[in-house]
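SAMPLE LOG
Freezer: B-3
Tube label: C17
Construct: single chain, 55 aa
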Amino acid sequence: SILNVIVFSLSKKLRSSPCSLYLIFASIGFSLYLNIVALLRFLQIVFNIDPSSTW
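STRUCTURE (predicted):
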């Protein structure tokens, strides 16, 4: 997904297309989602914290 952001944001022709903008923001959103899920999984495994039961 990071490669999508790089490719679509570097090309001026692709950056002006609404579809490309959608793909850029979808890739950024998916990357954020993956980072949050990885962080929660890390907390659960390493520190034995279960976010679903403590929050």
